[in-house]
Amino acid sequence: MEVDRFDPTPIYQQVAAIIREQIKAGALGPRDRIPSESEMVRDHGVARDTARQAVALLRDEGWVMTLPQRGSFVADRESWPAEG
After folding, report:
1. Is 45 inside any structural domain?
2. pLDDT at residue number 84
3. Domain HTH gntR-type spans what residues (predicted)?
4. Which CATH number does the domain housing residue 33 bear?
């Protein structure tokens, strides 16, 4: 899955969707570190603020937790939103 610059979906939501799918597929498991903002900038060609917004969205949804000075990690399954 790649960022589609012609898709009307905001870029930060697309980046969040890519990471969310990695979590759902098991490529990233609970307590695994998600890509850093710098890695998202490099891998997806987005601005740092866009990467920050993607992490904030995932955190607000319950997919990830951020620990100051340590990074962002996949949250425990109990925190994940219910599929519906």
Report:
1. yes
2. 45
3. 9-77
4. 1.10.10.10
